Protein backbone atom coordinates (compact mmCIF):
# COMPACT_ATOMS: atom_id res chain seq x y z
CA UNK A 1 0.00 0.00 0.00
CA UNK A 2 1.44 3.34 -1.03
CA UNK A 3 1.75 6.24 1.36
CA UNK A 4 1.02 9.89 0.70
CA UNK A 5 4.76 10.55 0.39
CA UNK A 6 5.05 7.93 -2.36
CA UNK A 7 2.17 9.34 -4.39
CA UNK A 8 2.81 13.04 -4.01
CA UNK A 9 4.39 15.05 -6.78
CA UNK A 10 4.72 12.47 -9.50
CA UNK A 11 6.81 13.58 -12.45
CA UNK A 12 4.87 15.21 -15.26
CA UNK A 13 4.40 12.80 -18.16
CA UNK A 14 3.69 14.85 -21.26
CA UNK A 15 2.87 18.32 -19.99
CA UNK A 16 -0.16 18.86 -22.22
CA UNK A 17 -1.92 22.15 -21.56
CA UNK A 18 -4.88 21.64 -23.88
CA UNK A 19 -7.83 20.33 -21.91
CA UNK A 20 -9.78 19.78 -25.14
CA UNK A 21 -7.77 16.66 -26.00
CA UNK A 22 -8.71 14.99 -22.70
CA UNK A 23 -11.54 12.90 -24.11
CA UNK A 24 -13.00 9.90 -22.26
CA UNK A 25 -10.88 7.62 -24.46
CA UNK A 26 -7.66 9.45 -23.61
CA UNK A 27 -8.61 9.46 -19.93
CA UNK A 28 -9.29 5.73 -19.90
CA UNK A 29 -12.97 6.21 -19.05
CA UNK A 30 -15.53 3.67 -20.22
CA UNK A 31 -17.43 4.80 -23.32
CA UNK A 32 -20.80 3.11 -23.20
CA UNK A 33 -21.89 2.03 -26.73
CA UNK A 34 -25.27 0.65 -25.64
CA UNK A 35 -28.24 2.88 -26.57
CA UNK A 36 -30.08 3.87 -23.40
CA UNK A 37 -33.50 5.48 -23.52
CA UNK A 38 -34.33 7.81 -20.66
CA UNK A 39 -37.72 6.63 -19.39
CA UNK A 40 -38.07 8.74 -16.25
CA UNK A 41 -36.17 11.20 -14.08
CA UNK A 42 -37.08 11.76 -10.46
CA UNK A 43 -35.49 14.05 -7.89
CA UNK A 44 -35.72 13.00 -4.26
CA UNK A 45 -35.21 15.62 -1.58
CA UNK A 46 -34.23 14.92 2.00
CA UNK A 47 -33.81 17.34 4.88
CA UNK A 48 -31.01 15.87 6.97
CA UNK A 49 -30.48 16.99 10.55
CA UNK A 50 -26.92 17.76 11.54
CA UNK A 51 -25.51 16.17 14.68
CA UNK A 52 -23.53 19.35 15.35
CA UNK A 53 -24.98 22.60 13.93
CA UNK A 54 -22.56 24.89 12.15
CA UNK A 55 -22.45 28.65 12.33
CA UNK A 56 -21.40 31.31 9.86
CA UNK A 57 -21.27 35.08 10.10
CA UNK A 58 -24.87 35.28 8.87
CA UNK A 59 -26.60 32.43 10.63
CA UNK A 60 -26.74 29.03 12.27
CA UNK A 61 -27.75 25.88 10.42
CA UNK A 62 -29.19 22.76 12.06
CA UNK A 63 -29.85 20.79 8.87
CA UNK A 64 -28.93 20.46 5.21
CA UNK A 65 -31.07 19.52 2.23
CA UNK A 66 -29.69 16.81 -0.01
CA UNK A 67 -31.14 16.20 -3.48
CA UNK A 68 -30.88 12.86 -5.27
CA UNK A 69 -31.57 12.68 -9.02
CA UNK A 70 -32.73 9.23 -10.12
CA UNK A 71 -32.79 8.19 -13.76
CA UNK A 72 -34.45 5.09 -15.14
CA UNK A 73 -32.92 3.87 -18.41
CA UNK A 74 -34.30 1.24 -20.82
CA UNK A 75 -32.07 -0.79 -23.13
CA UNK A 76 -33.03 -1.83 -26.65
CA UNK A 77 -33.86 -5.33 -25.39
CA UNK A 78 -36.20 -3.99 -22.72
CA UNK A 79 -34.03 -4.16 -19.63
CA UNK A 80 -34.42 -1.33 -17.14
CA UNK A 81 -31.91 0.08 -14.68
CA UNK A 82 -32.07 3.03 -12.31
CA UNK A 83 -29.07 5.10 -11.26
CA UNK A 84 -28.88 7.75 -8.55
CA UNK A 85 -26.58 10.69 -7.87
CA UNK A 86 -26.29 13.33 -5.15
CA UNK A 87 -26.39 17.12 -5.07
CA UNK A 88 -24.86 18.47 -1.86
CA UNK A 89 -25.53 22.22 -1.62
CA UNK A 90 -25.23 24.29 1.52
CA UNK A 91 -28.23 26.04 3.06
CA UNK A 92 -27.27 29.48 1.76
CA UNK A 93 -24.95 30.79 -0.97
CA UNK A 94 -21.90 31.47 1.20
CA UNK A 95 -19.48 28.89 -0.30
CA UNK A 96 -20.49 29.69 -3.88
CA UNK A 97 -23.66 31.03 -5.49
CA UNK A 98 -25.54 27.77 -4.99
CA UNK A 99 -27.91 26.60 -2.27
CA UNK A 100 -30.56 23.88 -2.15
CA UNK A 101 -33.19 26.21 -3.59
CA UNK A 102 -31.09 27.16 -6.62
CA UNK A 103 -30.06 23.55 -7.17
CA UNK A 104 -33.69 22.41 -7.09
CA UNK A 105 -34.56 25.03 -9.72
CA UNK A 106 -31.64 23.99 -11.94
CA UNK A 107 -32.60 20.32 -11.62
CA UNK A 108 -36.01 21.22 -13.03
CA UNK A 109 -34.35 22.39 -16.22
CA UNK A 110 -32.12 19.30 -16.37
CA UNK A 111 -35.13 17.01 -15.95
CA UNK A 112 -36.91 18.87 -18.77
CA UNK A 113 -33.86 18.52 -21.04
CA UNK A 114 -33.50 14.80 -20.40
CA UNK A 115 -37.20 14.00 -20.80
CA UNK A 116 -37.82 16.22 -23.82
CA UNK A 117 -40.49 18.43 -22.31
CA UNK A 118 -40.72 22.17 -21.61
CA UNK A 119 -39.74 22.96 -18.05
CA UNK A 120 -43.28 24.12 -17.28
CA UNK A 121 -44.60 20.66 -18.25
CA UNK A 122 -41.72 18.51 -17.02
CA UNK A 123 -43.14 15.82 -14.74
CA UNK A 124 -40.19 13.44 -14.90
CA UNK A 125 -41.80 11.16 -17.49
CA UNK A 126 -40.07 11.08 -20.86
CA UNK A 127 -41.91 12.40 -23.89
CA UNK A 128 -40.86 9.37 -25.91
CA UNK A 129 -39.54 11.58 -28.68
CA UNK A 130 -35.91 11.88 -27.55
CA UNK A 131 -33.25 9.59 -29.08
CA UNK A 132 -31.28 7.27 -26.79
CA UNK A 133 -28.00 8.30 -25.18
CA UNK A 134 -24.83 6.23 -25.18
CA UNK A 135 -21.56 7.53 -23.69
CA UNK A 136 -21.30 10.25 -21.06
CA UNK A 137 -20.77 12.99 -23.66
CA UNK A 138 -24.00 12.15 -25.45
CA UNK A 139 -25.75 12.16 -22.07
CA UNK A 140 -24.41 15.52 -20.84
CA UNK A 141 -24.97 17.11 -24.26
CA UNK A 142 -28.70 17.03 -23.47
CA UNK A 143 -28.25 19.78 -20.89
CA UNK A 144 -25.03 21.44 -22.00
CA UNK A 145 -27.00 24.54 -22.97
CA UNK A 146 -27.61 25.32 -19.27
CA UNK A 147 -25.07 27.87 -18.07
CA UNK A 148 -23.45 27.21 -14.69
CA UNK A 149 -25.22 25.21 -11.96
CA UNK A 150 -22.40 22.66 -11.60
CA UNK A 151 -23.87 20.96 -8.54
CA UNK A 152 -27.10 20.00 -10.28
CA UNK A 153 -25.13 18.74 -13.28
CA UNK A 154 -22.80 16.69 -11.07
CA UNK A 155 -25.72 14.97 -9.37
CA UNK A 156 -27.36 14.13 -12.69
CA UNK A 157 -24.12 12.82 -14.18
CA UNK A 158 -23.64 10.69 -11.08
CA UNK A 159 -27.00 9.04 -11.74
CA UNK A 160 -25.86 8.23 -15.29
CA UNK A 161 -22.66 6.55 -14.08
CA UNK A 162 -24.45 4.57 -11.38
CA UNK A 163 -26.98 3.34 -13.91
CA UNK A 164 -24.37 2.29 -16.49
CA UNK A 165 -22.28 0.55 -13.82
CA UNK A 166 -25.30 -1.32 -12.49
CA UNK A 167 -26.23 -2.38 -16.00
CA UNK A 168 -22.76 -3.84 -16.48
CA UNK A 169 -22.54 -5.27 -12.96
CA UNK A 170 -19.33 -3.40 -12.11
CA UNK A 171 -18.26 -0.59 -9.81
CA UNK A 172 -18.26 3.03 -10.91
CA UNK A 173 -14.54 3.27 -10.15
CA UNK A 174 -13.83 0.57 -12.75
CA UNK A 175 -15.70 2.64 -15.37
CA UNK A 176 -13.60 5.66 -14.42
CA UNK A 177 -10.28 3.83 -14.72
CA UNK A 178 -9.67 3.70 -10.98
CA UNK A 179 -6.83 1.43 -9.91
CA UNK A 180 -6.70 1.69 -6.13
CA UNK A 181 -8.60 -0.71 -3.89
CA UNK A 182 -8.24 1.71 -0.97
CA UNK A 183 -7.63 5.44 -0.81
CA UNK A 184 -5.69 7.49 1.72
CA UNK A 185 -7.74 9.86 3.80
CA UNK A 186 -7.34 12.71 6.23
CA UNK A 187 -9.73 14.82 8.24
CA UNK A 188 -10.51 18.51 8.59
CA UNK A 189 -10.54 20.39 11.91
CA UNK A 190 -12.52 23.62 12.02
CA UNK A 191 -11.71 26.94 13.63
CA UNK A 192 -11.63 26.70 17.42
CA UNK A 193 -11.79 29.53 19.97
CA UNK A 194 -8.69 28.33 21.84
CA UNK A 195 -5.49 26.44 21.14
CA UNK A 196 -6.51 23.84 23.73
CA UNK A 197 -9.81 23.14 21.96
CA UNK A 198 -7.99 22.73 18.65
CA UNK A 199 -5.40 20.36 20.14
CA UNK A 200 -8.15 18.17 21.59
CA UNK A 201 -9.45 17.58 18.06
CA UNK A 202 -5.99 17.13 16.54
CA UNK A 203 -5.14 14.59 19.25
CA UNK A 204 -8.26 12.61 18.46
CA UNK A 205 -7.55 12.68 14.74
CA UNK A 206 -4.01 11.40 15.21
CA UNK A 207 -4.36 9.00 18.13
CA UNK A 208 -7.86 7.60 17.78
CA UNK A 209 -8.74 8.01 14.10
CA UNK A 210 -5.17 7.39 12.87
CA UNK A 211 -5.66 9.58 9.81
CA UNK A 212 -2.68 10.02 7.49
CA UNK A 213 -2.94 13.82 7.48
CA UNK A 214 -4.73 16.63 9.29
CA UNK A 215 -6.16 19.84 7.83
CA UNK A 216 -6.90 22.79 10.11
CA UNK A 217 -8.81 25.96 9.35
CA UNK A 218 -6.92 29.22 9.87
CA UNK A 219 -7.52 32.95 9.66
CA UNK A 220 -5.52 36.00 10.79
CA UNK A 221 -5.28 35.87 14.58
CA UNK A 222 -5.99 32.15 14.69
CA UNK A 223 -3.01 30.79 12.81
CA UNK A 224 0.59 30.98 14.08
CA UNK A 225 -0.06 30.12 17.73
CA UNK A 226 -2.26 27.21 16.67
CA UNK A 227 0.31 25.87 14.23
CA UNK A 228 3.07 26.25 16.83
CA UNK A 229 1.09 24.08 19.22
CA UNK A 230 0.50 21.36 16.61
CA UNK A 231 4.11 21.26 15.50
CA UNK A 232 5.44 21.18 19.07
CA UNK A 233 3.39 18.05 19.74
CA UNK A 234 3.49 16.49 16.28
CA UNK A 235 6.64 17.61 14.44
CA UNK A 236 6.27 15.04 11.65
CA UNK A 237 2.50 15.06 11.17
CA UNK A 238 1.44 15.63 7.54
CA UNK A 239 -0.38 18.93 8.06
CA UNK A 240 -2.12 21.44 5.83
CA UNK A 241 -4.17 24.57 6.45
CA UNK A 242 -7.34 25.92 4.84
CA UNK A 243 -7.77 29.69 4.90
CA UNK A 244 -11.14 29.90 3.12
CA UNK A 245 -10.09 33.19 1.46
CA UNK A 246 -9.38 34.88 4.82
CA UNK A 247 -6.15 36.62 3.79
CA UNK A 248 -5.73 39.77 1.72
CA UNK A 249 -2.97 39.07 -0.80
CA UNK A 250 -2.19 42.80 -1.02
CA UNK A 251 -1.99 43.42 2.74
CA UNK A 252 1.69 43.40 3.85
CA UNK A 253 0.74 42.06 7.28
CA UNK A 254 -1.21 39.18 5.78
CA UNK A 255 1.58 38.39 3.32
CA UNK A 256 4.04 38.30 6.24
CA UNK A 257 1.80 35.83 8.06
CA UNK A 258 1.59 33.58 5.02
CA UNK A 259 5.35 33.71 4.59
CA UNK A 260 5.75 32.72 8.25
CA UNK A 261 3.78 29.55 7.48
CA UNK A 262 6.88 28.27 5.67
CA UNK A 263 8.52 27.32 8.97
CA UNK A 264 5.84 24.73 9.77
CA UNK A 265 6.58 22.34 6.90
CA UNK A 266 3.00 22.31 5.66
CA UNK A 267 1.72 20.24 2.75
CA UNK A 268 -0.10 23.32 1.46
CA UNK A 269 -1.96 26.53 2.23
CA UNK A 270 -5.45 26.14 0.80
CA UNK A 271 -7.25 29.10 -0.77
CA UNK A 272 -5.59 31.94 1.16
CA UNK A 273 -6.91 34.64 -1.21
CA UNK A 274 -10.18 35.48 -2.94
CA UNK A 275 -12.41 32.66 -4.13
CA UNK A 276 -12.60 34.08 -7.65
CA UNK A 277 -8.87 34.66 -8.07
CA UNK A 278 -6.31 32.69 -10.06
CA UNK A 279 -3.79 35.35 -11.09
CA UNK A 280 -2.92 36.97 -7.75
CA UNK A 281 -2.31 33.69 -5.96
CA UNK A 282 0.46 32.94 -8.43
CA UNK A 283 1.81 36.49 -8.66
CA UNK A 284 1.69 37.41 -4.97
CA UNK A 285 2.67 34.09 -3.38
CA UNK A 286 5.35 32.77 -5.71
CA UNK A 287 8.00 33.58 -3.07
CA UNK A 288 6.54 31.14 -0.53
CA UNK A 289 8.13 27.72 -0.09
CA UNK A 290 4.81 26.18 0.96
CA UNK A 291 2.65 25.03 -1.98
CA UNK A 292 -0.55 26.98 -2.58
CA UNK A 293 -3.77 25.03 -3.05
CA UNK A 294 -6.64 26.43 -5.10
CA UNK A 295 -10.12 25.26 -4.20
CA UNK A 296 -13.01 27.62 -4.94
CA UNK A 297 -10.95 29.32 -7.68
CA UNK A 298 -11.08 26.25 -9.94
CA UNK A 299 -14.52 25.73 -11.48
CA UNK A 300 -13.50 23.72 -14.55
CA UNK A 301 -10.53 22.48 -16.58
CA UNK A 302 -9.99 25.85 -18.27
CA UNK A 303 -9.35 27.42 -14.87
CA UNK A 304 -6.94 24.60 -14.03
CA UNK A 305 -5.04 25.20 -17.27
CA UNK A 306 -4.83 28.91 -16.60
CA UNK A 307 -3.57 28.33 -13.06
CA UNK A 308 -0.90 25.91 -14.27
CA UNK A 309 0.28 28.38 -16.90
CA UNK A 310 0.54 31.16 -14.30
CA UNK A 311 2.53 29.05 -11.87
CA UNK A 312 4.88 28.04 -14.67
CA UNK A 313 5.45 31.73 -15.36
CA UNK A 314 5.79 32.96 -11.78
CA UNK A 315 7.21 29.97 -9.91
CA UNK A 316 6.90 26.26 -10.67
CA UNK A 317 3.83 24.02 -11.07
CA UNK A 318 5.04 21.84 -8.18
CA UNK A 319 4.22 24.79 -5.90
CA UNK A 320 0.56 24.53 -6.97
CA UNK A 321 -2.00 22.06 -5.61
CA UNK A 322 -5.65 21.74 -6.68
CA UNK A 323 -8.52 20.61 -4.48
CA UNK A 324 -11.04 18.96 -6.79
CA UNK A 325 -14.63 18.78 -5.58
CA UNK A 326 -16.73 17.09 -8.28
CA UNK A 327 -19.91 19.00 -7.31
CA UNK A 328 -18.05 22.30 -7.64
CA UNK A 329 -16.66 21.55 -11.11
CA UNK A 330 -19.88 20.23 -12.63
CA UNK A 331 -19.35 16.49 -12.51
CA UNK A 332 -17.02 13.54 -12.55
CA UNK A 333 -15.82 13.71 -16.15
CA UNK A 334 -14.68 17.29 -15.57
CA UNK A 335 -13.10 16.30 -12.25
CA UNK A 336 -11.10 13.56 -13.97
CA UNK A 337 -10.06 15.95 -16.76
CA UNK A 338 -8.75 18.42 -14.18
CA UNK A 339 -6.93 15.66 -12.31
CA UNK A 340 -5.23 14.42 -15.49
CA UNK A 341 -4.31 17.93 -16.61
CA UNK A 342 -2.72 18.62 -13.24
CA UNK A 343 -0.89 15.31 -13.01
CA UNK A 344 0.55 15.67 -16.49
CA UNK A 345 2.01 19.02 -15.47
CA UNK A 346 3.42 18.06 -12.08
CA UNK A 347 0.55 19.50 -10.01
CA UNK A 348 -0.74 17.44 -7.09
CA UNK A 349 -4.48 17.04 -6.52
CA UNK A 350 -6.82 15.77 -3.85
CA UNK A 351 -10.57 15.44 -3.32
CA UNK A 352 -12.34 17.74 -0.90
CA UNK A 353 -15.76 17.35 0.66
CA UNK A 354 -19.03 19.30 0.63
CA UNK A 355 -20.84 17.80 3.64
CA UNK A 356 -22.07 15.00 1.39
CA UNK A 357 -24.21 12.17 2.64
CA UNK A 358 -22.90 8.61 2.40
CA UNK A 359 -23.73 8.50 -1.32
CA UNK A 360 -21.73 11.60 -2.21
CA UNK A 361 -18.84 10.58 0.03
CA UNK A 362 -18.73 7.19 -1.64
CA UNK A 363 -18.68 8.83 -5.07
CA UNK A 364 -15.66 10.88 -3.94
CA UNK A 365 -13.89 7.68 -2.90
CA UNK A 366 -14.51 6.18 -6.35
CA UNK A 367 -13.04 9.33 -7.94
CA UNK A 368 -10.03 9.20 -5.60
CA UNK A 369 -9.19 5.69 -6.81
CA UNK A 370 -7.70 7.29 -9.94
CA UNK A 371 -3.88 7.43 -9.96
CA UNK A 372 -3.79 11.19 -10.53
CA UNK A 373 -5.32 11.89 -7.10
CA UNK A 374 -2.05 11.77 -5.19
CA UNK A 375 -2.83 13.44 -1.84
CA UNK A 376 -5.21 12.30 0.93
CA UNK A 377 -8.73 13.68 0.70
CA UNK A 378 -11.28 14.91 3.23
CA UNK A 379 -13.27 11.67 3.38
CA UNK A 380 -13.74 11.10 7.13
CA UNK A 381 -14.89 13.38 9.92
CA UNK A 382 -14.46 13.28 13.68
CA UNK A 383 -18.18 12.84 14.18
CA UNK A 384 -20.97 11.82 11.79
CA UNK A 385 -22.40 14.81 9.93
CA UNK A 386 -26.00 13.66 10.07
CA UNK A 387 -28.30 12.23 12.72
CA UNK A 388 -29.45 9.69 10.13
CA UNK A 389 -27.57 9.03 6.92
CA UNK A 390 -28.82 7.41 3.71
CA UNK A 391 -26.49 4.43 3.90
CA UNK A 392 -23.17 3.12 5.12
CA UNK A 393 -19.94 4.82 4.13
CA UNK A 394 -16.99 2.81 2.78
CA UNK A 395 -15.06 0.76 5.33
CA UNK A 396 -12.43 2.85 7.15
CA UNK A 397 -9.30 1.54 8.84
CA UNK A 398 -6.14 3.38 9.89
CA UNK A 399 -6.22 6.21 7.40
CA UNK A 400 -7.61 4.24 4.47
CA UNK A 401 -11.04 3.80 2.97
CA UNK A 402 -11.90 0.72 0.94
CA UNK A 403 -13.18 1.48 -2.54
CA UNK A 404 -16.54 -0.36 -2.85
CA UNK A 405 -16.42 -3.16 -5.41
CA UNK A 406 -20.15 -3.78 -5.77
CA UNK A 407 -22.20 -2.72 -8.79
CA UNK A 408 -22.68 1.02 -9.16
CA UNK A 409 -21.68 2.99 -6.08
CA UNK A 410 -21.60 -0.27 -4.13
CA UNK A 411 -23.78 0.96 -1.23
CA UNK A 412 -25.76 -2.11 -0.22
CA UNK A 413 -28.02 -0.41 2.35
CA UNK A 414 -28.84 2.79 0.46
CA UNK A 415 -32.20 4.15 1.61
CA UNK A 416 -33.42 7.42 0.17
CA UNK A 417 -36.94 7.09 1.54
CA UNK A 418 -40.13 7.59 -0.44
Automatic annotation (TrEMBL):
InterPro entries in the record: Enolase-like_C_sf (IPR036849), Enolase-like_N (IPR029017), Enolase_C-like (IPR029065), Mandelate_racemase_C (IPR013342), Mandelate_racemase_N_dom (IPR013341), OSBS/NAAAR (IPR010197)
Cofactors: a divalent metal cation
The UniProt record lists the keyword Nucleotidyltransferase: no
SUPFAM superfamilies: Enolase C-terminal domain-like, Enolase N-terminal domain-like
Domain Mandelate racemase/muconate lactonizing enzyme C-terminal: 195-291
Gene Ontology BP terms: menaquinone biosynthetic process
Keyword Iron: no
EC number: 4.2.1.113
Signal peptide: none
Sorted UniProt keywords: Lyase, Magnesium, Metal-binding
Recorded GO MF terms: metal ion binding; O-succinylbenzoate synthase activity; racemase and epimerase activity
EC top class, as a word: lyase
Classification via NCBIfam families: menC_lowGC_arch
Protein's name in the database: o-succinylbenzoate synthase
Amino acid sequence: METWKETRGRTATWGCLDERVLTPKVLGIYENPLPLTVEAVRVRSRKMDLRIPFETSFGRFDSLVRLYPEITFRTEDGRRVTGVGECSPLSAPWYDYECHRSVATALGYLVASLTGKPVEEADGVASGKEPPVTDVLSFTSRYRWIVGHPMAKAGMEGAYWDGVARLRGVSVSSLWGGTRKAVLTGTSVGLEPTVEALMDKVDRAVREMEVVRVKVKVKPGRDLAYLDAIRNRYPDLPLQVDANAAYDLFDPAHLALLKDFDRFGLLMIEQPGRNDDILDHARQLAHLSTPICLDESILHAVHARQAIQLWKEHSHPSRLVVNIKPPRVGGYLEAIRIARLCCDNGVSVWCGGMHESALGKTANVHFSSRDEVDLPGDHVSQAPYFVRNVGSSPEYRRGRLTVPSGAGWGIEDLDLGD
